[in-house]
Amino acid sequence: MTPADALGALLGDDERASGSELDIFSVHNFEPGSVYRTKARMHGVKRTRVTPQAAEAKRLKDQAKIEAYVALQTEVMQRKQAKEYTPEALKRTSDLLDLNPEYYTVWNYRRHILLRGLFPSCAPAEIVNLLAADLRLTTAYLQIHPKVYWIWNHRMWCLENVPLGPGPDASDEPGSSAAATTGKEGREGWRNEFWKTELRMLEAMLDADPRNFHAWGYRRYVVRSLPASFTPKRTPQDELRYTQKKIEANFSNFSAWHLRTKLLGGLWEEMDPGEVKAAKDAEFELVTQALWTDPNDQSGWLYHRWLIGAAPPEDVLRREVKNIRELHETEPDSNWCMNALAHHCTLLSTMAASDEGEKLRLEARGLYERLEVVDADRKERYRDMAQRTLS
Amino acid sequence: MSKILDIPLHVSYIQNLDKKKDFGYHLTEHLRLNGVYWGLTALFIMSREDALDRAEMIHYVKRCWDEEAAGTFGAHPGHDGHILATLSAIQIMAMQDALDEVDTDRVVQFLLSLIRPDGAVAGDSFGETDTRFSYILIQCLTLLGRMDVLDRDIHRLAREAILENIRGSMNFDGGFGTEPGAESHGGQVWVCVAALALLDRLDVVDRDLLGAWLSERQLPNGGLNGRPEKLEDVCYSWWDVAALSILGRLHWINRDKLIAFIIGAQDLEGGGIADRPGDWVDVFHTVFGLAGLSLVGYPGLEDIDPLYCMPAKVIRRMGIEKGYTALSRMSST
Ligand SMILES: [Zn+2]
């Protein structure tokens, strides 16, 4: 099954976002002053020559579409103004979000409709149905707009409002954390189902784009907030296995390497020194594979630098310096290899006796001088770094 | 491909943004106030801040005020208040020297309501947190001259908590992510570094380590990416490059290649700058392309302050400038 099929399988057909305009209207995935870009074109869409006449013709053609959109927008905003929290209003927000899933004010209104208008008169099972419908809706949107913050936010909000149950105590208020403390499995049945769906959805999202940092972030949230009675339990080892799978599929998936640094950092704090050493050696082996596979890929080198750390045991550092020297001989033009070697030589020079230390600093300076030539874009950096080895 | 920045064409592109009301224009209403900030900043960089009507702009910003939901600014009249729109509003009013027309107390109250006990900052009352919002909160308070509220009364621990949250979002590679645990990203690096600079706490950063990571964002074609093994994009000519400037490591990339890349991303028929050469332009990439060019000393442009992404002369007038290193401006000849 392709990732797209897997995602499709999570959707009811009627829940797929409609409107072909959606695919030309994309958000920017980052901007602090304000998140999105103001243009109705996707990132990376080639510019084509449009004459003023053609543009005007398109505008006229779009006129009906624009009028319908503006009318719908006006209607929804009027209902919002009037504090109308009804099923009909909810339906109209879906219609508008179908056309523009970035309309954060409408997402806010939708949540108010649910919280203030619908939930109070709903049985918990009905709340569950409403939230499940919203998850299907956002799944459809994410398929087309995997990087829209507002859609991910709404999903998180849905999870936070799944009621306890089904079961005798199901009348507890939504979002109550009572279940986590009582640990009674039956009361978290709905929550367990929702979280299971999220893990499946995330698997598909990260298969489709293994570097989507929204999906990785949401995954951290989902794993962190798993219901207490969720089975099978998800341990840091499970997450580690997941990163391994991603890395083995593609060594240059830095997002997976990154998560590994976080997981292992935590795990190693709980191990005794002997176990930590063995575990680190296994990591060195994994990353060495990546480095020899493609010495020009940054991901492995960054991970290797993390493994070395600020104060490695001398024997480990010596071993790695030796290994990287070998790689450097095979791949004399790999910048990252030279960079790593220069850095590690400088580090080792602080541990070595003065003669050897001077030799290592010389080696580092030689590498930086070579880098100034072969990686001239960053020559000033290498000059500065060479200078640092003198002090 | 032209080697020259076509300033008059870009000015008219920005002046005309509001004129062609196509479907895309309507679909981006939730970004309108941000768009005004991007356009005005771009005009300032090109010394043409007079090209949009000041009174009209101030009037529009005031109409974005959301009295009911939040007591702050939304992205357009009728839209809900949010910290993202709030920053754009405050920046526009600061650039237009009209901050006295903002209800500062209400905005400060809104901002303070977003600080979580762990120092994370939310975007609105629904509570999504992100280090972008930490930066925005600090920049807004600085522009409003109200940073002192972070040391007072029930908020007296807020400054330290926000700092700790940003520090917790720092990774082994020296960069920063959206929250503790998240992967380093050029945009998040800029907001966190700029926030730390505004807090006078750049000591938290390993400048050589992060500077190296940032300089490795530059690809052979001169453009920069936001994360390892990703494609270049003109907007990182701001995020990454502004961070390098604040860290005093701007000389660690190839200036000439970056200039050529941004210049190549212009649309020389309709004006504006795209995410990369040959793509559709937008005002977002236009301002960040121009801002990047200004920072690396492209001739004939106004200085931009990398801590604020606002004209340096405005920041100086307000007396809130901090240190950074831009490259010296090249002569036009
Ligand atoms: Zn961009």
UniProtKB/TrEMBL annotation, chain A:
Keywords from the named record: Prenyltransferase, Repeat, Transferase
Keyword Hydrolase: no
Top-level division of the source organism's lineage: Eukaryota
Enzyme Commission number(s): 2.5.1.60
UniProt cross-references to InterPro entries, sorted A to Z: Prenyl_trans_a
Pfam families recorded: PPTA
GO molecular function list: Rab geranylgeranyltransferase activity
Region (Disordered): 168-187
GO biological process: prenylation
GO cellular component, one term: Rab-protein geranylgeranyltransferase complex
Catalyzed reactions per annotation: geranylgeranyl diphosphate + L-cysteinyl-[protein] = S-geranylgeranyl-L-cysteinyl-[protein] + diphosphate
Role summary: Catalyzes the transfer of a geranyl-geranyl moiety from geranyl-geranyl pyrophosphate to cysteines occuring in specific C-terminal amino acid sequences.
Similarity-based family: Belongs to the protein prenyltransferase subunit alpha family.
Official protein name in the record: Geranylgeranyl transferase type-2 subunit alpha
Source organism (scientific name): Dioszegia hungarica
Automatic annotation (TrEMBL), chain B:
Cofactor remark: Binds 1 zinc ion per subunit.
Catalytically driven reaction(s): geranylgeranyl diphosphate + L-cysteinyl-[protein] = S-geranylgeranyl-L-cysteinyl-[protein] + diphosphate
GO CC entries: Rab-protein geranylgeranyltransferase complex
Cytoplasm among keywords: no
Keyword Transport appears in the UniProt entry: no
CDD domains (alphabetical): GGTase-II (cd02894)
GO BP term (any one): protein localization to membrane
Enzyme class: transferase
TM helices/strands, residue ranges: none
Domain Prenyltransferase alpha-alpha toroid: 7-310
EC nos: 2.5.1.60
Pfam families for the chain: Prenyltrans (PF00432)
Cofactors named for this entry: Zn(2+)
Keyword list, A-Z: Metal-binding, Prenyltransferase, Repeat, Transferase, Zinc
Example GO molecular function: metal ion binding
Protein family membership: Belongs to the protein prenyltransferase subunit beta family.
Quaternary structure note: Heterodimer of an alpha and a beta subunit.
Function: Catalyzes the transfer of a geranylgeranyl moiety from geranylgeranyl diphosphate to both cysteines of proteins with the C-terminal sequence -XXCC, -XCXC and -CCXX.
Protein name: Geranylgeranyl transferase type-2 subunit beta
